[in-house]
Amino acid sequence: MPAPHGLVRGARSLPRIWTRETLGCRSRACELNHLAMELAPTLPSVTMKFRVSVLLVAWFGVLGCVQAEFFTSIGHMTDLIYAEKDLVQSLKEYILVEEAKLSKIKSWADKMEALTSKSAADPEGYLAHPVNAYKLVKRLNTDWPALEDLVLQDSAAGFIANFSVQRQFFPTDEDEMGAAKALMRLQDTYKLDPDTISKGELPGTKYQAVLSVDDCFGMGRSAYNDGDYYHTVLWMEQVLKQLDAGEEATTAKTQVLDYLSYAVFQLGDLHRALELTRRLLSLDPSHERAGGNLRYFERLLEEEREKPSSNQTEAELATQEGIYERPVDYLPERDVYESLCRGEGVKLTPRRQKRLFCRYHHGNRTPQLLIAPFKEEDEWDSPHIVRYYDVMSDEEIERIKEIAKPKLARATVRDPKTGVLTVASYRVSKSSWLEEDDDPVVARVNLRMQHITGLTVKTAELLQVANYGMGGQYEPHFDFSRRPFDSGLKTEGNRVATFLNYKHEQDAFKRLGTGNRVATFLNYMSDVEAGGATVFPDLGAAIWPKKGTAVFWYNLLRSGEGDYRTRHAACPVLVGCKWVSNKWFHERGQEFLRPCGSTEVD
Fold first, then answer.
1. What span, in angstroms and rounded, lies between the C-alpha atoms of 521 and 553?
2. How crowded is residue 325: how many other Cβ atoms within 10 Å of its Cβ?
3. Repeats (TPR): which ranges (predicted)?
4. In 61-172, where does DSSP find H-type helix?
């Protein structure tokens, strides 16, 4: 089908292209410090505040190492708060300088107005006094040119220089798109309508925040530019709702109708696309593209009427009523996963709950834990998932966050076909890896996890620290590698895991020589006001973050085969800042600590 006339509307606006030099943290900070020394002396209106600002940016240059992607880590986004605060202060200083300049100009204008009114009334009589004649010559030769210099003085130089330096580290178009997608992810996962998000009516929020008409329009446009017409319609309808309520905005209703009519057409709602286009033309009869679209839509509608009638599906009928279904995506257990994130569909039956207990855990009579055992609580019976309390102190948590933050980088996943680490939209967080040499607290926490689990950390991976960003999540995944440990895996079957074909998956841990990931120890380093649960879709289990606690489970059966029931996910963070750390224990070295089973399902 040819595209409607004019619908290739310049419609998908191309994002700005940002180019940056890939420099190391030290060289960037050095460069910025050098820039501070160069700029400050050449700008007479640059205050000491600007020097401080540039030094702040020099420190902020460390953040340049992570190459944008601010939306993937709330921890890094906090730095933007301080950068914006600095810019506001710089702007206020510019305003004070500008106001002082205008005050001088106004005082001069008032003085000259009074003088010229008097002199113009009797020019010859006024100039008859030799002092007046001298002062007139002096004013025009000296004073007025001085005023010209004052007017031309660029008091904005300090602010512009500060702004230009900091702008290098501003969020990019990628960040804005990522932030918009995060809000849409929260909208879908937690079944929030745009009006609820626009009013900021989210659970557990400490601060009030609302979306203006222009903000909502930005959301709709981001969805449109991403080819997401479902969310385009939802947000453009919200824009119309707020405009109809009388909210002031720079966004015109014709702009909204232009996007909306095309989006509903893409969703197959020809009748509504026609109605919206007519509405657009009633507001702007000279809108050329809308006129062409109207003729195109009318022709399509006429062709549709000439076709023999057929039974319409429920989806087609719903579309004609302006109700649009969310498109099906790549994740087979999407509905189950998101239900668990909302706290729905948890299969913790009374019978199962009776099998869950609390106890003091001494780690197989580990001497250190005999003196101070940990409180252990069953979260799930099979596979056995337990939670430990008071695993990390607040001081330890803050220290680990402090040393991890400068190292945070976009979390990656391993491509199942190539084995190469890459970023993915289904994992939105930043992570770093801490060695025991980084700080004594790392070694102390590692040893504590060894005591609790009874497993050795000698073959375990480094301590990974992760901070989740806006709508931060990690969709359903396995911690263990499916190849070659499960070479007999079939692609048919009734378990969710078998929907995926791992035929070509690389052995992710072969180069380590330590075997597969036998167990996961997950520390919650923050409370989360809303969302952020760890869920197991195949089990129907949901575990909620609680600061200072940790959960533990085995990824492999005693036979060494993967336990596919442990497929799990980190739900999007609705409100709050989620920090976690985890230790992945590997098979090698555990032979006598967790002996193998005698059958495949042990």
1. 7
2. 11
3. 254-287
4. 74-121, 123-127, 130-138, 144-152, 157-167
Q: What is the CA radius of gyration of the chain?
A: 32
**Residue 322 is which amino acid?**
G
The one-letter amino acid code at 428 reads V
pLDDT for 544 equals 97
Quick one: pLDDT at residue 314? 54
Closest C-alpha among 257, 264, 256, 198 to residue 229? 264
Alpha carbon distance 491, 505 (integer Å): 13
CA distances from 280 to 235, 252, 253, 484 (A): 17, 11, 8, 60
- How open is the CA angle 232-233-237, to the nearest 5 degrees? 115
Write down the pLDDT at residue 77. 82
Contact call for residues 398 and 384 (beta carbons, < 8 A): no
Give the Cα separation of 380 and 559 in Å (integer).
21
Q: Which residue numbers in the chain have pLDDT < 70?
A: 1-68, 309-322, 414-420, 423-424, 426, 483-508, 600-602
Decide: residue 589, CB within 10 A, 0-12 exposed, 13-18 middle, 19+ buried: middle
CA distances from 232 to 15, 277, 399, 400 (A): 17, 16, 43, 41
How far apart are alpha carbons 493 and 404 in whole angstroms? 42
What sign results for the dihedral spanned by CA atoms 531, 571, 452, 409? negative
Evaluate whether 369 touches 452 at the Cβ level (below 8 Å): yes
**Amino acid found at 278:** R
* Angstrom distance (rounded) from CA 47 to CA 86: 13
Residue 601 CB burial class (10 angstroms; 0-12, 13-18, ≥19):
exposed
How far, CA to CA in Å, does 499 sit from each of 331, 483, 495, 572?
Answer: 10, 16, 7, 23
First to last CA, the chain: 57
**pLDDT given at position 415:** 66
Of the candidates 271, 71, 89, 289, the residue with the CA atom closest to the CA atom of residue 183:
71
